[in-house]
Amino acid sequence: MEHREGRPLIDRVRLARTFYQRYGREPRLFRAPGRVNLIGEHTDYNDGFVLPMAIDRETVIAGAARDDRRVRVYSLNADEAVEFDLDHPGEKQRGIWLDYVEGVAQSLLGRGVRLKGADLAVLSDVPVGAGLSSSAALEVSAGLAFVSLSDQQLDRVTLALAGQQAEHVYVGTMCGIMDQFVAALGREGHALLIDCRSLEATLVPLDTSETAIVVCDTNVKHELSSSEYNARRAECERGVEMLREMMPGIRALRDVSVAEFAQHEERLPETIRRRCRHVVTENERTLSAARALQDGDLKEMGRLMYASHRSLRDDYEVSCRELDVLVEIAESLGGVVGARMTGGGFGGCTVNLVRREALGEFEQVVSREYTRATHLNPTIYVSEAGGGAKEIKDS
Question: How confident is the model at residue 128 (pLDDT cuts 50, 70, 90)?
């Protein structure tokens, strides 16, 4: 099990050295974190509530401004160099990592931010496809680099919105705002209760002195995730249209209470009913979870996490066997307070609240039983609630 102890995992010296070797200049460094969502899944694009935290895995970008409008980008992870011109946008939705970087640049330009060309080098230890938001970490770190290297100012909410727009337009995933928001605005030692309609964020203290946050990666990625994600969003929108016939004032599922939904759910087709029921009940669970954390009631937090997983599995149908196995193993262990799938689903990770004295047993039993059930090895690590995007001044 990986324990982070507050140290940076990215080899920032290697990144800066690689940048100098490629471009012959000293860079500035910018970082943005991945995230894990404690509860509030598939609610963000329904104007709902989410409760994520930034994690201590990150994407770091080394950069220096240019005198022209060219942007050169080298990915150390992919060992690939690409270029684009700020004044001549490339094709959208090419299915390559450059979509995220160029998409952010074009989104910022569209907002009137006066960007300079730049040389960039990228290094990340946020696993791709694990539901820990590697895409938002890249978008937000790239956005911060572009803005800073161009001697511009931009508030963090607008930075997050630029990242989201890049994902919508250049990548083609109609994501909510959560991932980019927490990458831009995360705070050490806290989760963020985010209202995805108003974009108001409330800091929720996260005491991990006795109970650790443990991420378990299934190490599977089921390919249908992107198409199914967009299908779920469409099903929710259809549900809102149908519910609006009985509740004319609603704009999104966020406007429907659990009691109101119970009154009208029989009018919905079964599949749409289940999708909407998940979102409506998940919003209530998320608000209750924030109160539980504020009150230090981890038992209630754990109960809500298990209920969230069952709803995602049965009503929203975005879990998979590997995620279910991890949650079932966790639920069988006495030292585990709560567990659920996190992220979009169809693979990726679970998030677990584990009493620190039980961490050794947790790793041993989860590794053994998951491998026995799936013939795969999980990746297990303890994560602290980290900070959001920033320029690294002390490397």
Answer: confident
Answer whether 344's CB lies under 8 Å from 136's CB.
no
Flag whether 389 is in a domain: no
Tell whether the model's pLDDT for residue 317 goes beyond 80.
yes
Please say if 179 is a catalytic residue: yes
Which residues, 6+ apart, have CB-to-CB distance to 163 below 8 Å? 104, 107, 136, 139, 140, 143, 179, 180, 183, 184
CB 306 within 8 A of CB 340: yes
Asked, for residue 129, whether it belongs to a domain, the answer is yes
- DSSP 8-state code for residue 53: E
**Six token digits for residue 79:** 């060992």
- CATH number, domain with residue 74: 3.30.230.10
What would the 3-class secondary structure string for 297-359 be? Answer: CHHHHHHHHHHHHHHHHHCCCCCCHHHHHHHHHHHCCCCEEEEEEECCCCEEEEEEEEEHHHH
- Could you tell me the sign of the dihedral formed by the alpha carbons of 271, 274, 280, 285, in that order? negative
pLDDT digit string, tens, across residues 364-388? 999 999 999 999 999 998 999 999 9
Q: Is residue 223 part of a domain?
A: no
| Residue of 56, 99, 119, 179 marked active site | 179
pLDDT, mean over the chain: 93
Report the number of distinct structural domains present in the chain. 1
Domain that holds residue 59: 12-206
User: Which residues, including other chains, have CB under 8 Å from residue 70's CB and lie 6 or more apart?
Assistant: 83, 84, 85, 86, 117
Does any domain span residue 199? yes
